[in-house]
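USER: Note each token:
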Amino acid sequence: LMKTLINCDNPDISNATVKKMMGHLWYLSDELFGLCLFDQNVSVETKCKIVHAMIKNPSPEVRDVRPKIKKDDLKKLELYDLANKNTTRIFIEFGVDNF
């Protein structure tokens, strides 16, 4: 959705909607991000890349309550870029030990 809004033909609409949506990224944590694995709109290929990132990407040393993602970064950011070892925490919290 964010990429669609960024690439909107009308710059006024694009800027206004992206600015508003960026204000709602507060809930996008690396832990909650793991829930996208259950989204039927996410391809199996992307889910595999997310799982790989969950295993390989280190957790950030400092965790921000609100992620700091710049508008220009959103253009090239993929779902799997947001995953890291912290993403496994949601599964551990729900008692899923093997994933």
